[in-house]
Amino acid sequence: MKGIVFTGDKGVEVRDFEVPSPGPGEVIVKIRASGMCGSDLHVYRGAAVKPSAELLVQGHEPCGEIVQVGAGVSAATAKVGDRVMIHHYWGCGTCIDCRTGWPQMCRTAEPRVPTLNEHGAHAEYMRIPAIQTMPLPDSLSYAAGAAIGCGTGTAWGALLRLGDISGKTIAVFGQGPVGLSATMFAASLGARVIAVDIAQGRLDQARAFGADVVVNSAEVDAVEAIRAATAGRGPELVLETSGVTRVAQQALDVAAPWGRICFIGIGADIAFNTKDTLRRQLTIVTSWTMSTVEQMRCAEYVDRMKLPVEDLFSHRWTLDQAVEAYEWFDRQDAGKGVFEAV
Predict the structure, then answer these.
(1) Rounded distance, CA 260 to CA 94, Å?
(2) CA-to-CA distance for 60 and 149, rounded, in angstroms?
(3) Which of 17, 49, 58, 143 is deepest in the core (most CB within 10 A)?
(4) How does pLDDT run across 60-108, given as a tens digit for each residue?
(5) What residues contact residue 333 under an 8 Å CB cut-off, 6+ apart?
(6) Could you list the residue ranges forming a coiled coil in this record (predicted)?
(7) Gap between the Cα atoms of 102 and 84, Å rounded
(8) Which candidate, 81, 87, 77, 50, places its Cα nearest to that of 65?
């Protein structure tokens, strides 16, 4: 089968791999859609590897159809023909975190993560534990299921960490796929959304997804603009998705007294003085993707509310277009890409 690997220094190759076979408790999924995630770029832009290195297939936003089932997998868990999303972490399966749907927080074993220590989804087939599959609602496309499996689901998880948002004002910093998903969810849940980004195209999409106010931080001071839009007080809720240190600091600075802030962008360094900050009575939290349970709830909500998750995708590719696809994605000036089966 074909699979996409990163060779470092922005090198991409499509290589041949053996079609995997399922072990006990495992299934083989024919990948119908595999989303491109911004975190891919950390590896894509990394140091070059030796030509002889054994590289892992990339991609951790998989969605597809079960085509083979291993020993010990009951039909109630997974069966051939099921349309499934995939929760792209798995751990020991028995510790308290695994049992509550948080295998990425496994306490007794190093979590298995596609692209890091397991083959990923930018391929024709993928082998995974059956328990990490979950039903894709019939009305949702494979591409929508792939988005929910990571970026869109990450936005859902972050809003859960912020708590009740109905009737409140939320500033969403960064309108990439995660930020746009957060804007879409927050608007549908009854919040007033202030969307912040440096790209006008993304802000236009945010407006289409329900943002009440858009702020182009390449043209105006974001903190001043948000305060102006909130009568000087600042928003009750803030979500930071960019992972850029300067932007994360703005997110911290702009929150209203008693405000709640959630950081999900990767890579930012944030500093604050406790004397100044404690007097603002802030609640600061982080969020890492979502649980298996919330992934299913997220998909059910998208299905019930008929949210336009499919509109996140601006570009669709085949595996053979991997080089072109990642050259485009590396520019980070447009929407979201997905590899789809022909």
Answers:
(1) 33
(2) 8
(3) 58
(4) 999 999 999 999 999 999 999 999 999 999 999 999 999 999 999 999 9
(5) 199, 201
(6) none
(7) 18
(8) 81
SS (H, E, C) the chain: CEEEEEEECCEEEEEECCCCCCCCCEEEEEEEEEECCCCHHHHHCCCCCCCCCCCCCCCCCEEEEEEEECCCCCCCCCCCCCEEEECCCECCCCCHHHHCCCHHHCCCCCCECECCCECCCCECEEEEEHHHEEECCCCCCHHHHHHHCCHHHHHHHHHHHHCCCCCCEEEEECCCHHHHHHHHHHHHCCCEEEEEECCHHHHHHHHHCCCCEEEECCCCCHHHHHHHHCCCCCCCEEEECCCCHHHHHHHHHHCCCCCEEEECCCCCCCCCCHHHHHCCCCEEEECCCCCHHHHHHHHHHHHHHCCCHHHHEEEEECHHHHHHHHHHHHHCCCCEEEEECC
Domains of the chain: residue spans and CATH: 2-150+290-340 (3.90.180.10), 152-286 (3.40.50.720)
What are the structure tokens assigned to 122, written together?
């930018």
- What percent of the chain is predicted at pLDDT more than 70? 100
What contacts 24+ positions apart, CB below 8 Å, involve 265-271? 265/173, 265/174, 265/240, 265/241, 266/39, 266/42, 267/243, 268/240, 268/242, 268/243, 268/244, 269/245, 270/245
| pLDDT for residue 332 is more than 90 | no
d(CA 114, CA 199): 31
Token duo for residue 193: 């959304």
